[in-house]
Amino acid sequence: ARRRMEHAGNLRLACIRHLNARQDSGEYDAWRKRRRARESKAIMNETALSAWRVDESGFPSGGSIEEKLRFAVNYAILAPSSHNTQPWRFLVQRDTVQVCADRSRALPVTDPFDRELLISCGAALFNLRAALSRFGCAYDITTFPYSSEPDVLAQLRVHPQGHLDREIAELVPA
Question: Which residues pair with 158 in a beta bridge?
Fold first, then answer.
């Protein structure tokens, strides 16, 4: 048993010496840089980047209102959010979108009162409004439409007599 302990101790010292030698030669830093590059490639794969490839030409101008809303949500999800938490959910039904807070993405330590969560959801709603205005879809918004469901922050309904804001529509290509 004593021999095993000596062997384990010697092996541990050999590993530490090897690591120290690699660190001193700069080889360790190069290895860490290669490892980080591999990890970031895995994270930023095609699926992750596909959300940023929204193309205006894909707008279903002849489609249903629901199809148009689903397309506009692609712009809404690009909104900035606190600590990039993206604390929103969108529920699309026929001519209506509900913007909901996703409490599973809340930051209770840094944002105990959900102030930043609400601001982030407001930014997503703004992007949705800008996209709908860009594509000529008039809408009405009701904030906190259901007192019994505090996570439903806004309800946006598309209809011809609704609001259309040409000023924010110009922001969409940016």
Answer: 139
Element (H, E) at 112: none
Between the CA of residue 144 and those of 4, 74, 103, 104, 170, what are the distances in Å? 68, 22, 16, 19, 27
Per residue in 65-115, pLDDT tens? Answer: 999 999 999 999 999 999 999 999 999 999 999 999 999 999 999 999 999
Contacts of residue 93, Cβ cutoff 8 Å, sequence gap at least 6:
66
Residue 158 carries which DSSP code? Answer: E
Q: Tokens 């944002």 label which residue?
A: 111
Distance (Å) of CA 169 to CA 32, 107, 134, 173: 45, 32, 4, 9
